């Protein structure tokens, strides 16, 4: 493990184990279909973003909460394998850690997720302490432990860190957290309670900008992503690849976007790099197996100069 002074990105949020089964097609309710194969991989929004950064050469540390059950053990093994520091990971014995079953379509690579929260208690705000990370530049949150996330954002801003949020679904307390964020990267569904179903991304960007983030990106899956920076809208197409599984694609996008922030790139460059890294991940099943190295991303971008 690296010394805490070397950590550049601290992430706080969820880690889990995903059980992934490929199916020829998704059945109707009360129907059935044969699993073509079944495997397990570690996942979770914040932790997968940190794994992405680690494979790109960035030192990271994960703050979260698991138990000592077999799932929690696998979470630790996954973080260790990708050199993500977990010295401050809360481990509460005698509980169940979070897991998911994911049905992946053979034809499209789209996935349907069934997940179980587990019984492990979340991080409390009193348990958040960013003081050891004297060299950190970015705090990344997935917003799934809201009280701890708000406290971490408060500490990070006081220490001069840039705060990034992966906003997947609007929950109680989400908008309070958004008001503490520098860079908001949201799914298309996150702003639906604010702007309504089917509203254009530009309307969602405008609505979210009122809560204070300096940069906002909305990810649109195969339609790419669209960003907002001080009133300027930036569009980025998705890169064409042979999609095997989209599980974790957004988490990888977040990690790769943070890489661009660390390098001082503008929004367009961050979005292009993140889109490419996310696309490459989709060529393999699971959230992490397909995450590329920095050289792989740069080589891929050289072959797609027009996107």
Ordered list of secondary-structure elements with their pairings:
Layout (H helix, E strand, L loop, with lengths): L8 E4 L3 E8 L13 E7 L1 H11 L4 E4 L1 E3 L2 H12 L8 E3 L6 E7 L5 E6 L21 E4 L4 H13 L3 E6 L6 H5 L4 E5 L4 H4 L5 H9 L5 E5 L5 E5 L2 E5 L12 H14 L4 H15 L12 H10 L4
Parallel strand pairs: 1-4, 1-9, 2-7, 5-6, 9-10, 10-11, 11-12
Antiparallel strand pairs: 2-3, 7-8, 12-13, 13-14
Q: What report would you give on this structure?
A:
It is a single chain. The protein is of the alpha/beta class. 30% of the residues lie in helices and 23% in strands. The protein is built from nine helices and 14 strands. An eight-stranded mixed sheet has the order 4-1-9-10-11-12-13-14, sandwiched between helices. Helix 7 packs antiparallel against helix 8 and helix 8 (267-281) crosses helix 9 (294-303). The mean pLDDT is 96.
Give descriptors for this structure.
about 300 residues, alpha/beta, 8-stranded mixed beta sheet, 4-stranded mixed beta sheet, 14 strands, globular
Secondary-structure element pattern, one letter each = EEEHEEHEEEEHEHEHHEEEHHH
Please, what is the average pLDDT?
Answer: 96
Q: Describe the biggest sheet? A: 8 strands, mixed
Spatial strand arrangement across the major sheet: 4-1-9-10-11-12-13-14
Q: What's the number of helices?
A: 9
Coarse morphology: globular
Overall structural class, as computed from helix and strand content, comes to alpha/beta
Instruction: Give the N-to-C terminal Cα separation.
Output: 37 Å
Strand content bin? 15-25%
Oligomerization = single chain
DSSP summary, beta strand count: 14
Q: Kindly state the percentage of residues in helix.
A: 25-40%
CA radius of gyration is 18 Å
Unreliable stretches:
none
């Amino acid at each position: 493990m690296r010394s805490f002074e070397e950590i550049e990105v601290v992430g706080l949020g969820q880690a889990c184990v995903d059980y992934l089964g490929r199916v020829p097609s998704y059945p109707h309710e009360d129907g059935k279909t044969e699993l073509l194969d079944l495997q397990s991989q570690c996942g979770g929004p914040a932790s997968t973003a940190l794994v992405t950064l680690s494979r790109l050469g960035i030192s990271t540390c994960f703050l979260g909460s698991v138990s000592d059950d077999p799932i929690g053990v696998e979470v630790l093994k996954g973080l260790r394998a990708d050199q993500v520091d977990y010295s401050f990971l809360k481990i509460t014995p005698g509980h169940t850690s979070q897991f998911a079953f994911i049905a992946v379509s053979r034809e499209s690579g789209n996935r349907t997720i069934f997940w179980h929260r587990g019984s492990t208690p979340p991080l409390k705000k009193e348990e958040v302490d960013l003081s050891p990370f004297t060299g950190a530049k970015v705090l990344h949150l997935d917003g799934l432990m809201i009280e701890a996330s708000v406290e971490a954002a408060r500490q990070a801003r006081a220490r001069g860190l840039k705060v990034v949020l992966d906003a997947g679904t609007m929950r109680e307390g989400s908008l309070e957290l958004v008001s503490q964020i520098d860079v908001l990267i949201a799914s298309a569904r996150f702003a639906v309670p604010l702007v309504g179903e089917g509203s254009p991304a530009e309307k969602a960007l405008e609505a979210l900008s009122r809560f204070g983030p300096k940069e906002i990106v909305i990810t649109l899956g195969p339609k790419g992503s669209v960003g907002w920076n001080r009133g300027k809208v930036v569009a980025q197409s998705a890169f064409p690849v042979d999609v095997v599984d989209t599980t974790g694609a957004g988490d990888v996008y977040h990690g790769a976007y943070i890489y661009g922030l660390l390098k001082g790139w503008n929004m367009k460059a961050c979005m292009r790099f993140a889109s490419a890294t996310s696309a490459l991940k989709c060529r393999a099943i699971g959230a992490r197996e397909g995450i590329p190295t920095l050289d792989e991303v740069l080589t891929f971008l050289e072959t797609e100069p027009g996107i």
